[in-house]
Amino acid sequence: MHWIAVAIGGALGAMGRYAVSSWVFQINHKFPFATLAINVLGSFVMGILFVLIVERTLLSMEMRSLLMIGFLGAFTTFSTFSLDALGLWQNGLLFLALLYVLATVGLCLVAISSSIWLTRLL
Question: What pTM, to 2 d.p., does this model score?
Fold first, then answer.
């Protein structure tokens, strides 16, 4: 049953990623705002789900498979982040590449830690 939950979550996550990527406006097509937004949003949601599923067990382990592994696994992606950073670097945009790496890691850490904190308050 977990395999099916992961597959369904993965399909929904991939569609969600496509929808957000299509929606987020990329200024000058030089900075990958879509990937940044997806990874920060995914980190925030992961924090909420961690508290609800792992700490409080309010949702089943099947929901963990569907949401945390399947949906967020397909919604966020480190490979796209890496490709975006490398593309900036190879195009001579070293400052933007560094800014993107630091912003992604920093904002994702802030997103997941703040969502854990906020969800624990509820």
Answer: 0.81
Q: What is the mean pLDDT of each run of 10 residues along the chain (122 residues)?
A: 95 94 71 89 93 92 93 89 91 96 96 96 92
Query: Residue 96: CB partners within 8 Å, gap ≥ 6?
Result: 30, 31, 88
Q: Rounded distance, CA 74 to CA 16, Å?
A: 9
Report how far Cα 53 is from the mean position of its chain's Cα atoms: 18
Pick the closest to residue 76 from 3, 9, 1 (CA basis): 9
88, 23 contact by CB (below 8 A): no
DSSP state of 24: S
Cα separation, 41 vs 75, in Å, equals 9
Distance CA 32, CA 24 (A): 10
